[in-house]
Amino acid sequence: MAQATGSRDRAAKGGKVSELNIPLEKLLKASGGSIYKVTMLAAKRAMALADGEKSLIEKPTEKILGNALHEIRDGKIKAK
Predict the structure, then answer these.
(1) 60 Cβ neighbours under 8 A, 6+ residues apart
(2) Whose CA is closest to 21, among 11, 4, 7?
(3) Does residue 42 contact residue 65 with C-beta atoms inside 8 Å?
(4) How many angstroms separate the CA atoms of 47 and 11, rounded?
(5) What tens-digit pLDDT sequence spans the chain (80 residues)?
(6) Domain boundaries, the chain
(7) Are the beta carbons of 75 and 27 closer than 8 angstroms?
(8) pTM score
(9) CA nearest 38: which of 22, 59, 20?
(10) Is residue 69 within 8 Å of residue 22, measured between CB atoms?
């Protein structure tokens, strides 16, 4: 039986693992409780950041989706 390879395995092999642990409840506040809306909001914001828009958080990382999720968590952007 084969074991699933996860982030711990990558870290043990010297790979870089991102620490992104944002509770879903905090993200849902920005979207009126809709998982669909928070997903779309994060995707659209990540695309905007990838296209060169300035991040709204103080210390952005190289992980664009992580930056978008942090902006949502911090209330910097909200779904319409």
Answers:
(1) 67
(2) 7
(3) yes
(4) 27
(5) 444 555 555 445 555 555 678 899 999 988 999 999 999 999 999 999 999 999 999 999 999 999 999 999 999 999 88
(6) 24-80
(7) no
(8) 0.73
(9) 22
(10) yes
